[in-house]
Amino acid sequence: MATEKKRTIGYLCPSCRKKVIRNRSAFALAASGAVVSCECGKSSLTIDAEEKGFRLSVPCGVCGGEHSAAVDAARLLEGQGIGLACPQTKQLCCFIGEDWEVEREMERLSLAADKETNRGADGELFVDSLIMHEVLSELKEIAAREHGISCTCGSEKYTMEVRPTYVDLICADCGARLRIDAATDEDLDRLCCNWTLKIKGK
Fold it and tell me: Taking the domains of the chain in order of start, what are their residue ranges?
């Protein structure tokens, strides 16, 4: 017996900030659309079936508003998936498709939404405050080692620029830069593999 085809629907609740991910059968979607609600009861994504496709109304966990879009039936019901972007931030605010694809996109969306609440000392937004804190702590440990942070020009003097998703180490003598990504667990793992860091001088 053939397994009933499912589509996974995901969005980020603008009220409680939790990822909302639900499965619906493709048959039910094609027949009558769907309503997917957050457990907090304060947001719902609606999919209304129309003559040639669907009308989506999506709560936006990035800007806090609600967005609407017309979607072709084949794109919503087939393939890996389809996403709707927030017109203000250009960030994806919902995704409908295969399980793994929705999970991945919702994780990215969750990181993007964190920009609204996590701010750096200079007023810029961090994608992930915890990862940035860990990266800066690790850089401090590396710098404390002998020749921990140096430049191929021979200098061991440097400055740092901290941005939302990375840290730039800048040689104080030649101005060369070494970019350290600081947005994901993988970025932190990559940095922790280094006993020392060397800036490529000009």
Answer: 6-114, 129-199
